[in-house]
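Priority: medium. Attachment 1 of 2:
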C-alpha cells in the first residue's frame, strides 16, 4: 500500500529548490513520475514513458498560475517497522517486542493486499 500526501506544484518546486526531502514518486494529472538522475538531466520522469525521457516539465508550465496550483500526489511506499537490535540486560523484552513487530508488519502486509 502507498501513503499519499497531496501538495501543490508550487510547494513541490520549493522542496526541490531547497533540496529538502524531494519525493521519489509523484502523481500529477493521472501520470506517475519518478525522480531520476540521468545523462539527460535531473528531474521527474514519466514512469510509463521513461525510455522516451518524458519529463514533468512537459506537463506543467511555470508561467501558468493554474498549473502552479495543480495538486500533486506524493506516493510513498509503506515501510516495515524495524526490529530492536539492542539487548536489554535487566529485562529481556526484546523478543516479545520483536514478536509484536512481526504481527504488526504481517497485518500491514495483509491490509496492503486488499
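Attachment 2 of 2:
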Amino acid at each position: 500500500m502507498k501513503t499519499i500526501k497531496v501538495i501543490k506544484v508550487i510547494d513541490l518546486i520549493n522542496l526541490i529548490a531547497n533540496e529538502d526531502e524531494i519525493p521519489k514518486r509523484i502523481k500529477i494529472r493521472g501520470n506517475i513520475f519518478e525522480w531520476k538522475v540521468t545523462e539527460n538531466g535531473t528531474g521527474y520522469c514519466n514512469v510509463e514513458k521513461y525510455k522516451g525521457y518524458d519529463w514533468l516539465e512537459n506537463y506543467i508550465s511555470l508561467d501558468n498560475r493554474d498549473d502552479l496550483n495543480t495538486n500533486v500526489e506524493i506516493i510513498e511506499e509503506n515501510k516495515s517497522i524495524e526490529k530492536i537490535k539492542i539487548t536489554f540486560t535487566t529485562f529481556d523484552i526484546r523478543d516479545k517486542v520483536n514478536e509484536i513487530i512481526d504481527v504488526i508488519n504481517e497485518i500491514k502486509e495483509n491490509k496492503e493486499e486488499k
